[in-house]
Write a structure and sequence with these properties.
The complex is a heterodimer. Chain A is mainly α. Chain A is built from 13 helices and 1 strand; from the N terminus they run H-H-H-H-H-E-H-H-H-H-H-H-H-H. In chain A, helix 5 packs antiparallel against helix 6 and helix 9 runs antiparallel to helix 10. Classes of the chains: A mainly alpha, B alpha+beta. Chains A and B meet through helix 2, helix 3, helix 5, strand 1 and helix 7 of A and helix 1, strand 1, helix 2 and helix 3 of B.
Amino acid sequence: MIFYRSVAELARQAGEKNISDLVLAQQAAQLERPAEDIYREMAESFTVMKQSVSDGVAKDIRSASGLSGGNAWKMQRALEGGLTLCGPIFASALVKALAVSELNACMGRIVAAPTAGSCGILPAAVLSLMEARDIPEEKAVMSLFTAAGVGMVIANNASVSGAEGGCQAECGSASAMAAAALVEMCGGTPDMVCHSVAIALKNVLGLVCDPVAGLVEAPCVKRNASGVANAFTAAELALAGIESVIPVDEVILAMKRVGDAMPSSLKETAEGGLAATPTAAALRRKIFGA
Amino acid sequence: MNVFDIIGPVMIGPSSSHTAGAVRIGRIARALLSSEPVKARIGLYGSFAKTYKGHGTDKALVGGILGMEPDDIRIRESLALASKQGLDYSFEEAALENAHPNTALISLTGRDGETVSVQGASVGGGNIMISRINGLAVELTGQSVSLIVLHEDTPGIIATVTNFVAAQGINIGSLRLTRDQKGGLAVMTLEVDSPISPGLNAVMGQLPHVISSTVLNPQ
């Protein structure tokens, strides 16, 4: 049995290899299935991710509440018009994060990564890098094993649920997983993966889960966009050789303690934060009639 | 935990607990009914009752009752499909006590008049916990092959059932037994590590003091 209790330990065991190779081999042993089988299942999820990006940029998608839809399309227009501030790869990542997250709000088919509310971040990071750098698809699929390895440690030692740990546990975990995938796809070392995860989580420590009207829409969709931005920031710093002062596993434990200390009004109950604003209250009345 | 618990499930949005988990509760209710459902009375409790429309929990539950998987794109149109297939469904707020905030109580009637009721909660990440079947307390996650054995509360019944399972070389992962009263009706739920064939289950149903046995495959 493999326990996934430390990201640093994953990096140490990977040694000269990628963390993804280690995680794939471990999962084959744990699930008692051939590695090719497990790779294939992950590749199928990757196909769903690609489809969710292309379905989500449609102009006319709208959620049942009316709160979501159409923003990925707007961002795509800006990208195509060359109107972006931070360059095409970054704008493309924002388009994809919005697309998948809006599709989720509109009852489309997505891959939870690690949750439905944070499902846009990992596919946006991996797919935008893959396209921009012509990286082979196999490498992109493999990077998802590194992301999942990181996610399992976070789930074991802290949480990936907004109800338990706030948004830091959902979009924060997703951006840490995405940072790890980006670093590995760019040829970074397992050590750099550790630093990228630490940096990504530190940047959003304390982020609250405050969904307007209790729905996975506002601010979730835009936090997916900022989550992929955070992943790129963390990966970029780590690839430049910048190190986190606090080691990754200690950051994860800090996230757990911050989540525990957070009042329940800021953990997915829609009783605090943005959910408690007058506009949110008016929207709730409009959507649910009470 | 494995990689597919973190990257996965593939599902219809927007919420793993309010949508994907709800589909799985609906599927379990359907799996426990031997004929096609014609009537579904669905009670919602807590957050399910408050937010079901915005999360599509109603469509998810009905989709599950129609046998759809959590990633079936038809979930979006499940209410219309239900009406077309002759499933009469209705929703109401359920008055439950001490239940998990995301609980549904589903009562189904089959074409042949058979009924079943299932109370289940969506406990996060698409995972569920079934807490009652036909009013009797159980504890099922729907992740393993499960046996639901209704029996008389009499000495030696646990040994009878477990010896039978052991003789087939089947390993038991969890076992729970509850009864309504001493010497009354009892229900044993076993989560096991290997498949149970319909034939084997039929023999189980014939064991002394056993009233019925139902196999629930992972949903």
